[in-house]
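tokens incoming
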């Protein structure tokens, strides 16, 4: 662990990530990188360069990808991992994490999220504000569980899937990789095919 943190992405998601890092009180200094060169400061935190500058900083900083898009976050995360970057886990102090929960590097757990016992969360995930991930879930890498989502017990969510805000997933279900579940959806059966699913119960669109 380094005493400085560099967050890639200074807009919406990156700011929430920075807020968690500040609340964790673990780093002496926090900075952003962002490809929008017009952003000098975000949340009062200095933007010190663009993604082109990333590898110049890798030895001196812990690095976290603060980008909400699953594909972009995965791409940058894998580059960082390959380069040997130190990538922390960020957990808001007001998240609740149960016993025997395993959380991969590069994952952010936002305020009010609850991850119950024996769940495994992959790397580069977002467990967003006020979502609940109940017991024995398996959330693969680069998944986004949006704000207010409820995953019942023993749910599996495949790599890169995005579970939309306020949706509900019944217990003992598998959602495959690269799915996009719409806002407010209810999933009552396995989803074995990648795609976009909306409604109550969900239908593919
Ligand atoms: C902190 C944060 O902000 S985290 C981010 C939180 N945001 C989210 O979770 C966003 C979730 N995204 C959605 O719900 C989106 O609407 C998606 C991804 C499901 C669909 O987006 P698109 O692929 O662009 O689909 P599009 O908008 O063209 O809609 C396709 C059809 O699905 C319907 N539809 C789209 N979303 C929903 C939804 N959530 N519930 C019900 N129907 C929906 C549309 O009305 C449309 O129906 P029609 O063909 O009969 O007219």
């Amino acid at each position: 662990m380094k005493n400085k943190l560099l967050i890639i992405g200074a807009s919406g998601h990156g700011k929430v990530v920075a807020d968690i890092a500040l609340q964790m009180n673990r780093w002496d200094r926090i900075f952003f990188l962002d490809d929008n060169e017009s952003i000098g400061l975000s949340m009062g935190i200095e933007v010190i360069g663009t993604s082109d500058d990333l590898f110049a900083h890798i030895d001196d900083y812990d690095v976290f990808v603060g980008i909400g898009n699953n594909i972009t976050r995965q791409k940058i995360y894998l580059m960082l991992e390959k380069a040997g970057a130190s990538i922390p886990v960020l957990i808001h102090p007001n998240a609740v994490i149960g016993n025997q929960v395993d959380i991969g590097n590069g994952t952010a757990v936002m305020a009010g999220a609850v991850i119950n016992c024996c769940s495994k969360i992959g790397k580069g995930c977002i467990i967003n504000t006020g979502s609940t991930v109940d017991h024995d879930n398996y959330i693969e890498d680069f998944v986004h569980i949006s704000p207010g989502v409820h995953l019942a017990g023993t749910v599996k969510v495949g790599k890169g899937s995005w579970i939309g805000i306020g949706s509900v997933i019944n217990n003992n279900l598998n959602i495959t990789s690269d799915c996009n579940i719409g806002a407010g959806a209810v999933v009552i059966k396995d989803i074995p095919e990648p795609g976009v699913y909306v409604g109550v119960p969900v239908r593919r669109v």
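note: The mean pLDDT is 97.
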